[in-house]
Amino acid sequence: MLKNGMVALVKxxxxxxxxxxxxxxxxxxxxxxxxxxxxxIIVTNMVVTLIMAVVGFRVEx
Length: 61
What we know:
The chain has helices spanning 2-10, 13-32, 38-56. The chain is mainly α.
């Protein structure tokens, strides 16, 4: 069971990396400029992450 779970984690590394970069980039922007609207950036990241996850982690049957 653990082996199957590990395969799922490594199966789509590029999608996971891009999602991580989106969040890290947004965090860096928030650190550099404290006048940015935090809530708007977080909501935008959530929407983008959901879209990327649906497209990037799609399993072909």
